[in-house]
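Support reply, case 0932

Customer input (verbatim):
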Amino acid sequence: MKIIICNMMEQHLEFQVNPNDTVLQLKQLFCEKEGSVLANCRLTHGQDELHDNQTIQQANLKEGDIVYYSMHLGF
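Our regenerated output:
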C-alpha cells in the first residue's frame, strides 16, 4: 500500500509498505531517503502521533493516507 509522508518543506514522498510493517519501519524508510536522524523523527496522522511499535494497520493508515513528519527534539 502507498503511504505519503509530507516533510517540513511540504514535499510529499511516497512509500510502499505492507499493513503488517511497523511505524518504525516506515520511519526508517523516510529517514534513509531524507537523510534525517531516526531518533528525531516524529510522524503524525490527523491529531495522533504514530508509535514505533504499531503496525501500519494498527495505526489505522489506509492506502494513500498522508502522514506528517516533524522533528522531535526531546525537550
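We compared this against your earlier run and they match. Two observations from our side: Residues 2-71 form a domain with the Ubiquitin-like (UB roll) fold (CATH 3.10.20.90). The beta strands are 2-6, 12-16, 41-45, 48-49, 66-71. Please reopen the case if you see a mismatch on your end.
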